[in-house]
C-alpha cells in the first residue's frame, strides 16, 4: 500500500519532541491502492468524521470539490469508540503522495517499513501552509535545527 506519514507523527519520527493527536497520511490516490487503504481503515474501525461516504475519495472530481467548496485540506477518519484515534488523509496538491514521496524516508517500526516525509520535505510542506499555526512554525524551527545538526 502506498502511504506516507506527513504530519505531526512524521515530525516526531524525525526527532522533534512534541505531542500529536492524529495521524496525517498522504495516500497514493490510485483507485486500487485507495480501495486497499479504505479497507484497512474499515478493519481498524475508522469511519469518516463527516457525513460523506469513505468511497467518495475514489472520485477525483468529488475530492477536488471537497477541497474547493468545503475548504478542506484533509478527509478525517475517526473511531467512534475512541475519539483520540483519528487519521487525516491529505487532499490538497501540497499534501499529495506524488509530491511528498519525492522527499520521504523509510524507517522500520516493529520490523515493518514505514514511509515518512523527510525533514526537508516537512519544512517545505509547512512553509506552504496558507494559515500556519504556532505549532507549525515551531516544527519548522525544530526541524531546521535537527537538519543543521545532521549536516554539521
TrEMBL record:
Gene3D superfamilies in the record: 3.30.460.40
Q: Which domain of life is it from?
A: Bacteria
Protein name listed in UniProt: Uncharacterized protein
Species whose genome carries this gene: Leptonema illini DSM 21528
Amino acid at each position: 500500500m502506498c502511504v506516507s506519514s506527513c504530519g505531526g507523527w512524521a515530525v516526531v519520527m524525525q526527532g522533534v519532541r512534541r505531542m500529536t493527536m492524529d495521524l496525517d497520511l498522504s495516500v497514493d490516490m490510485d483507485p486500487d491502492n485507495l480501495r486497499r487503504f479504505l479497507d484497512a481503515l474499515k478493519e481498524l474501525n475508522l469511519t469518516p468524521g463527516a457525513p460523506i461516504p469513505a468511497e467518495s475519495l475514489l472520485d477525483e472530481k468529488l475530492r477536488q470539490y471537497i477541497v474547493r467548496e468545503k475548504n478542506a485540506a484533509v478527509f478525517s477518519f475517526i473511531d467512534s469508540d475512541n475519539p483520540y484515534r483519528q487519521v487525516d488523509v491529505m487532499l490538497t496538491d501540497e499534501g499529495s503522495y506524488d509530491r511528498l514521496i519525492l522527499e520521504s524516508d523509510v524507517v522500520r517500526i516493529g520490523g515493518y517499513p514505514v514511509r515518512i516525509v523527510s525533514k526537508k520535505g516537512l519544512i517545505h510542506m509547512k512553509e506552504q501552509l496558507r494559515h500556519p499555526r504556532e505549532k507549525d512554525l515551531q516544527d519548522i524551527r525544530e526541524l531546521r535545527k535537527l537538519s543543521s545538526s545532521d549536516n554539521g
